[in-house]
Design goal:
Helix content: 40-55%
Number of helices: 12
CATH architecture: Alpha-Beta Barrel
Distance between the termini: 25 Å
Low-confidence stretches: 334-340
Length: 340
């Protein structure tokens, strides 16, 4: 069986007031920690999403660090071209210190031009800016001099950060660049803009990454997947259909998805795993990227389930889906896990 770390990613969305959405997202981190998830991830969005969105991930993760005991904390992604990489490094260093060394960071270039315009960045140069900023961020988090002679980030990191950098990519050449930079590979929940299944496309990217890897440490590949287990497909769809339809229409408007497709086709393009846990396990056993992945990162987006359904889905992922695929929680987490 495949062995991997199990992650949970939230876009901080909900069905109510934003303050309640943020509070419940924090609760999901606590529950994921108790269930034995290895890593909790948050996505950064400067433009509001349906039902929420998180513009500033590091304050959120600092709060999560105070409420959790063992789960690692990361971003998927921090939109690096819209940030000062030295300031990001300072935020990471502070949260890492407060959490007892539990922080990782995923970076990328984001998705749309509006946020670039709002924050005064050049959208057309986003990939070049990501590469340059990543170099600065990496040096800063390895306690090297950055920005000015003699300047290093405070507080200094006392633990080795070398294998905690993740880079999101959307092509085989991008995967090669990530390998050359010594970053872990972060693959999105779906490969948008392709008619083929996501895992067919992304396996090519993963293979390109592995072929280009020359670092002395083992490579790491994280795959994010839309996973929503429930009693059956009908129950699952009742919770996720509205969000899937809304997001699919947004992609149609942007030209990423074809118009007029049935819901099943949009779910396929989102590479969705939903329904009874046994169905999800069977589908994952055919997943082409999972055999080379070191991290499986589950998320409910584009679905926006209610809180109770989200909690139940986390429980099913941790107790039925992931164990059937070869994952085991840490001993301390297993003993603390509540009975579903």
């Amino acid at each position: 069986m495949t062995t991997f770390r199990l992650g949970f990613l939230t876009h901080v969305q909900g069905r109510g007031p934003l303050a309640e959405t943020y509070r419940r997202a924090q609760e999901l981190f606590v529950i994921a920690d108790e269930l034995g998830f290895d890593v909790g991830w948050v996505a950064q969005h400067h433009i509001p999403l349906h039902g929420g969105g998180l513009s500033s991930p590091w304050p959120f993760l600092a709060h999560a660090a105070a409420r959790t005991k063992r789960i690692r904390l990361s971003t998927a992604i921090t939109i690096l071209p819209l940030e000062n990489p030295i300031r990001v490094a300072e935020d990471v260093a502070v949260v890492n210190t407060l959490s007892g060394g539990r922080v990782e960071i995923g970076v990328g270039s984001g998705s749309g031009p509006v946020e670039y315009a709002a924050l005064g960045a050049d959208y057309d140069q986003r990939r070049e800016t990501t590469t340059a900023s990543f170099g600065v961020l990496r040096k800063a988090l390895l306690n090297q001099e950055v920005g000015a002679p003699g300047f290093t980030v405070q507080p200094p990191l006392t633990d080795d950060f070398t294998d905690r950098f993740w880079q999101a990519v959307f092509s085989a050449p991008g995967a090669g660049f990530a390998a050359e930079a010594g970053a872990n590979l972060l693959l999105n929940r779906a490969a948008y803009g392709y008619a083929e299944n996501t895992d067919v496309i992304q396996r090519q990217w993963a293979d390109a990454y592995l072929a280009a890897w020359t670092q002395p440490r083992p490579p790491r590949i994280g795959i994010s997947r839309f996973v929503f287990p429930a009693a059956d497909k009908r129950t699952a769809l009742a919770q996720i259909e509205d969000g899937v339809r809304r997001t699919a229409q947004n992609f149609v408007d942007r030209g990423t998805f074809p118009a007029g497709q049935p819901l099943d086709e949009y779910l396929r393009r989102f590479h969705a795993f939903y329904g009874h846990p046994d169905e999800i396990v069977a589908e994952f056993q055919q997943e082409r990227v999972l055999p080379v992945a070191t991290d499986l990162i589950t998320q409910f987006n584009p679905g926006v389930p209610d809180f109770d359904a989200a909690v139940r889905a986390l429980e099913l992922i941790a107790t039925e889906v992931a164990p059937a695929l070869g994952w085991k929680p840490s001993t301390s987490a297993a003993s603390a896990r509540p009975t579903p």
